[in-house]
Specification:
It is built from six helices and two strands. It is 63% helix and 4% strand. The two termini are 20 Å apart. The longest helix is centred in the last third of the chain and has 25 residues, at 118-142.
């Protein structure tokens, strides 16, 4: 119940709107990120300070990573739904499962900055996307089953990412 109250307080526009106006108007407090972009810095997630919007950490390459994983999940989901009409139903179901996990963890990456160990959680989840979803996508697109053996390791990565939230 305390976490619900915290979230409700964070959603109060009176709290973050003045700070948002302040951060967008001042550009003198920015520093360079490893990807060449700029983001405010005071030592939080990836060297970035917490953004004014709802207290979440904001960093250019984190949001880029979330955008790429989400967009690729949507594109592959569209291919599965519309481009796989002649494929075997079992293969199509495997692809839909991979896509469901891909999209779920892409959205879950948005909450990673709120964890105590964001690099660990995001690394496991990205590894799970590559190993689990990637191996199934490879099988579905090429018909080659040689990478299907790594899918369980991707599932373990997903599980470890969720468990690392508790650390």
């Amino acid at each position: 119940m305390d976490s619900l109250n915290y979230i409700i307080k964070q959603l109060d526009p009176k709290k973050w709107l003045p700070a948002l106006k302040q951060t967008t108007s001042s550009s003198s407090s920015t520093s360079s990120t490893p990807t060449g972009g700029s983001c405010p810095s005071n030592g939080s997630f990836h060297g970035c300070r917490k953004s004014a919007l709802m207290g979440f950490a904001h960093c250019r390459y984190h949001t880029t990573m979330v955008g790429i994983t989400g967009a690729s999940a949507i594109l592959l989901g569209a291919y599965i739904s519309h481009g796989m009409t002649g494929k075997d139903e079992q293969v199509r179901q495997a692809a839909l499962t991979a896509n469901r996990y891909h999209l779920l963890h892409a959205v879950a990456l948005l909450a990673v900055p709120m964890t105590r160990r964001p690099m660990l959680v995001s690394s496991f989840w990205l590894g799970g996307m590559v190993l689990f979803c990637g191996s199934i996508y490879y099988h579905v697109i090429t018909g080659n089953q040689r990478l299907r053996a790594v899918a369980p390791y991707g599932g373990i990565c997903f599980l470890l990412g969720w468990l690392c939230i508790m650390l």
